# Entry
Amino acid sequence: MRRRTPPPPAPLPQRAGVDPVRVRLPADGQWATVREHLVERLTGAPPGVVESMFAAGLVVGADGRAVAPDAPYRPGMFVWFHRELPAEAPVPFPVEVVYRDEHIVVADKPHFLATTPRGAHVAETALARLRRELGIPTLTAAHRLDRLTAGLVLFTVRPEERGAYQSLFRDRRVRKEYEAVAPYDPALALPRTVRSRIVKERGVPAAREVPGEPNAETRVELIEHRGGLGRYRLVPATGQTHQLRVHLTALGVPILGDPLYPEVTAPVPAGDFRRPLQLLARRLAFTDPVTGTAHTFTSARTLHAWTSHEAWAAGT
# Structure
């Protein structure tokens, strides 16, 4: 199998912990200039933005020099630029560093903070924050945690080692345990293992279960219950999108604070951090593929609906 030639290093520095955008011009392009291609490709940009970027010399090639507005289209050429950062409501909770060495950083992410830049969440992400706060521009995420879920996330320090840590998750060699607060149903027999087929369609907020060969498996245990609520331990064997949320909903005990399950609700205003989803990535255990060290990490966070349900329900 022919190996792909790696792209050249970025000629632009990060901005606020965010990498510049890299674009490789398609081999079958019919555009006359680089600018024409980017105007067509960046259809979501406001009118005139791409032209302004070229006029200001903000689109550069591999040598770091500005690409002229009339530069001819060359298939396979790489260009870089920084997009304007979106206006983001600051997430007023810290990212706690649980562990750090020369290879990895394990962080305890708060609710409402995305793991990596995506869509409307760019600088206000765990990755961008940690790059800025720790001064590690090469930091990358080995996996992702939903924006609404709090808890442990593994980041890698050295780009050449990222694949080794990502393979831990791909090959299911990481033990992950979650904790959730949901209604208590005395008729629900636990513990049990839930298996189903989950699909998530692009552009559709919620995932759903469909008939077919199971691709999602979760061990569900009841830790304790009181006042009509249960505290659950969830041990996923797979990593489908929204898997834990879908499985608890299917059992009739949807996680408190979930805006998608069992029904999609209207989005809350930006900056509204009340009543977070009561789901926490509590524990992460694996053998380090680089050092051979056996690691077990535990989140120090608690779920507010369990420690003080009335205050959580009131959004205080």
